[in-house]
Amino acid sequence: MADVHQLDPISRSPGKATVYGAWERFVKGEDDIRGLRPEVAISWHRCRDQYRVDPYLTEAPVAVAEVDHALEHDVVFAELGFRAASVAHEVSNLGGVVTITDATGRVLAQWGDQATRSRATKANLAAWFCWSECATGTNGMGTALEAHAPVIIRGAEHWCQAFHDWTCAGVAVRDVVTGEPIAALNISCWRGDLPASAAAWLGNTATKTQHILRQRAQDSGAELVAAYNHARSRSSAALAAVDPAGRVVIADDTASVLLGVPGSTPAPDPAARWNPSLPGFIWAARYASKQATHNPDWVGSTQIFTHLADEPTPISIRPVFLSGQLVGNLISFGVSEGEQLPRAEGARRPGARPHRIVAMRDNRMVLLRLPEVSFAESKGNDVWLSTDQGRLRAASAGLDKLESELTDAGFLRVHRGYVVNLSRIREVERRFRGELFLVMDDQASPMVPVSRRNAPAVRRALDI
């Protein structure tokens, strides 16, 4: 996306009466959300039913969360600060303000029109105060931290009535390895709409900032591969190297079979790493990363279930660092060394558990039973579900998140863009060059492609 240096003239906002009426009904406990955009409706449900934010809150609370972040996060804050300052004059001329928060929604800095900043301070839209969605309800910064694309919150779309005079646009910068938010950048105007180019500028800024993280992640992946090669030359145990999110960067032939990923194939690029689809394994890797961040000498061990064994397999986990920063872990199979990890739910053989998937249809939220869903498909920042009720957009923010929720419920990742319900597969078609395609039992659904790296897991799951 090209750099956006100028902010266009203010665009007109949509009718507010319909949104405000929906807000009044929803706050009273009704679920009528006619006239509301899906991303706002989902945010309101979180605010009312999950976070229980008081809709009559008049100011943001003080940020009290402990701050714990890596060096890369400081680089992101500095980069966003530079970009926010560069557009501050243009935003100020429109009577707006630019704000940066950390991952907890704590405001770090603000630029822009002085009169608007003074007005914002009355609502605690200022440094040291928290604008996460769970603290202050639907708003540009907090809702951006929950989303995977730029968001615009206009007027009565804000959960708290005291902020209905504001229009805000925000975007989150996310860690390219874990997918977790690092910071949010936001533009706010009081009693006016934002320029039409605001969302494009925010998205462009987030993309350029995440490019810095992607370069760092490539270096981290290369360091993990080097550490793996060194460790493999000194031990005969099956070995894998994983990033802090538990995704496999490289695994030897034995470990790859246990994890269900390609063997001896390095993947330093964070976009090309493999998800082993083993909740216990991923939980252990993430737990180890948290421990090693605070104690570089930490080494741990636990037992996990793998794709082939009926009994749990012992593993030992050892952290890997680059320039003093954790980049991942080496995991040895059949070895028990170091501190025992606490028992987690994901470490047990998963059993059937009731689940529902939340989807959107026009102005309604649809609660789907799992058997109703044939497969999920990623399209840009959205996830679309092929269901017995037609094609619906999932409320889940990304396919990775949906996959993690459904791994234990009979769903399998078969392609970077698809997660399928194994019980809904009717036929498997093999093409001339060996490519696999899944024919689902829904006649209206297209065939689902299987990527080469996911083909072994599909064959094991279907016993073919």
Description:
The protein is an alpha+beta fold and 464 residues long. Helix content is 31%, strand content 27%. It contains eleven helices and 21 strands. The protein has helices at residues 16-27, 38-50, 71-93, 114-122, 133-136, 140-146, 198-232, 253-259, 279-294, 399-406, 455-462, and strands at 96-102, 107-112, 151-154, 166-174, 181-190, 238-242, 248-251, 300-304, 313-322, 325-333, 339-340, 356-361, 364-369, 373-379, 382-387, 390-394, 411-415, 418-421, 425-430, 436-440, 448-450. The strands form four sheets. The protein has a seven-stranded antiparallel sheet with strand order 13-12-16-15-14-18-17, sandwiched between helices. Helix 3 runs antiparallel to helix 7 (198-232). The longest helix is centred in the middle third of the chain and has 35 residues, at 198-232. Residues 1-14 and 345-354 have low confidence and may be disordered.
Could you give a short description of this structure?
By secondary structure, the chain is α+β, with helices and mostly antiparallel strands. The chain is about 30% helix and about 25% strand.
Q: Can you lay out the helices and strands and say which pair or pack?
A:
Elements: H1 16-27, H2 38-50, H3 71-93, E1 96-102, E2 107-112, H4 114-122, H5 133-136, H6 140-146, E3 151-154, E4 166-174, E5 181-190, H7 198-232, E6 238-242, E7 248-251, H8 253-259, H9 279-294, E8 300-304, E9 313-322, E10 325-333, E11 339-340, E12 356-361, E13 364-369, E14 373-379, E15 382-387, E16 390-394, H10 399-406, E17 411-415, E18 418-421, E19 425-430, E20 436-440, E21 448-450, H11 455-462
Parallel strand pairs: 8-11
Antiparallel strand pairs: 1-2, 1-5, 3-4, 4-5, 6-7, 6-10, 8-9, 9-10, 12-13, 12-16, 14-15, 14-18, 15-16, 17-18, 19-20, 20-21
Helix pairs in contact: 3-7
